[in-house]
Amino acid sequence: MSAELKYRRILLKLSGEALGPQGGSGIDAGTVQRIANEVRCIHNLGVEVAMVIGGGNMWRGADAAATGIDRGTADYVGMLATVMNSLVMQDAMEKLGIATRVQTAIEMPPVAEPFIRRRAVRHLEKGRVVILAAGSGNPFFTTDTAAALRAVELNAQILLKATKVDGIYNDDPMRNPQARRFTDLSYMQALNMGLKVMDSTALSLCKDNAMPIIVFSLQQEGMLEAIIRGEKCGTLVSTDANELSV
To answer: pLDDT per residue over 42-98, tens digit each?
Structure first.
């Protein structure tokens, strides 16, 4: 493994929308292939990769609940959507020659392995990409929170959250061209600002376990590898000096 790599075990969080067509729902095969290629690049460097993929391109539990569906039921349907996305990503990566395992928080043996932390770690050590599906297995928790939980459980060095924009801004850059991008934030700053890039439960879990987060965009080719090599990309959310002294 190259000595110049900054991170050697990562948790990559993708939204379900990242797999879908622009402005639409479902799965865009070309987008899935592009993401799989980005993951292959860092996998070939020897990086151990775990992934959590959302299901928002197919189903959003909170939105469905607003229509009158029981929230718990709606969230379980959303978990199944994450399994579908995970299986599609597994297929794309294995066609590139990358050994991949899907583990689910809800047991479904004909489809995937159940999530077992020690087994997931062993897969990573053997060079397999591990895709962690069905969130945390509990309703009322987002896949962001599941990603934070899995990152801590698997002793990842960093949680990388891929979004549509290249970091965290003080306003929506899609609507406000004057919006300013942050290069660094503390956990408390991110929590106090009520940023929508990641929910407060996930941020708090990362804060309590000193799990750094980088929010970045996968739209630009090579961005994932640049982060792995230690280049300053996106927005880093971590513990600052003041928090360390508390």
So the answer is: 999 999 999 999 998 888 777 777 888 999 999 999 999 999 999 999 999 999 999
User: In 187-241, at which residue ranges do the beta strands (DSSP E only) sit?
Assistant: 213-217, 235-238
Orientation angle between helical segments 29-43 and 71-94, nearest 10 degrees: 60
| pLDDT tens sequence across 31-57 | 999 999 999 999 999 999 999 999 988
Q: Find out whether 238 and 207 touch, Cβ atoms under 8 Å.
A: no
Which residues lie across from 217 on neighbouring strands? Answer: 163
From edge to edge, which strands make up the β-sheet containing 100-104? 113-114, 100-104, 129-133, 48-53, 9-14, 158-163, 213-217, 235-238, 184-186
Task: Please state, in angstroms and rounded to a whole number, the distance separating the CA atoms of residues 31 and 65.
Answer: 29
Predicted structure pTM score:
0.92
Whole-angstrom distance, CA of residue 156 vs CA of residue 130: 12
Of the ranges 82-91, 93-102, 173-182, 207-216, which one carries the lowest mean pLDDT score?
173-182
**205: closest CA among 233, 237, 183, 235?**
237
DSSP state of 54: -
Q: Which domains does the chain have, with CATH numbers?
A: 9-244 (3.40.1160.10)
SS3 163: strand
Helix (H, G, I), strand (E, B) or coil at 189: helix
Residue reference for tokens 């290069």: 183
Cβ 106 vs Cβ 134: under 8 Å: yes
Tokens 């799965």 belong to which residue?
A: 27
